[in-house]
Amino acid sequence: MHKGYLQLAAFLGALSVALGAFAAHGLKKVASEYAVGIFETGVRYQFYHVFALALTAILWKDFPVKTLNMAGIFFILGIICFSGSLYLLTWMNIKDISATKFVGPITPLGGLFFIVGWVLLLVSIKKS
Fold first, then answer.
1. E strands along the chain, which residues?
2. Cα(23)–Cα(105) distance, rounded to whole angstroms?
């Protein structure tokens, strides 16, 4: 299991760098400063949680408890919901599509997933 999390962390890390470069160079040409800021927030939180996922994978060797596996799942869900919704909001802003009632609530749900992941990481370490 830890190898899968490490592989996913490496992939998501590479994707973070690519998306960050896109935001710095390509996105600024087609999006407002506001939209670029939203996108960059998504990239930043994705990158932070790549390290959380990698830490979870590394800790698995010493603390192979169910809550640690759940922490990894919540970090992944957080990246998908939080960062993914911000990427989608940026695209919608560029395309002048107003569906923030649909996408907007997904972002805080992703943030909640991040928090749960960190709490589960703490619980996992305390358990072992």
1. none
2. 23
Q: How many Å apart are CA 40 and CA 68, to the nearest integer?
A: 28
- What is the rounded distance in angstroms from the CA atom of residue 124 to the CA atom of residue 65? 6
Q: Side-chain half-sphere of 96: how many Cα atoms within 13 Å?
A: 1
Q: Which residue has the tokens 């990427």?
A: 87
The amino acid present at 14, given as its one-letter code, is: A
What pTM was estimated for this model as a whole?
Answer: 0.94
Question: What are the tens digits of pLDDT across the range 33-72?
Answer: 999 999 999 999 999 999 999 999 999 999 899 999 999 9
Distance CA 47, CA 33 (A): 21
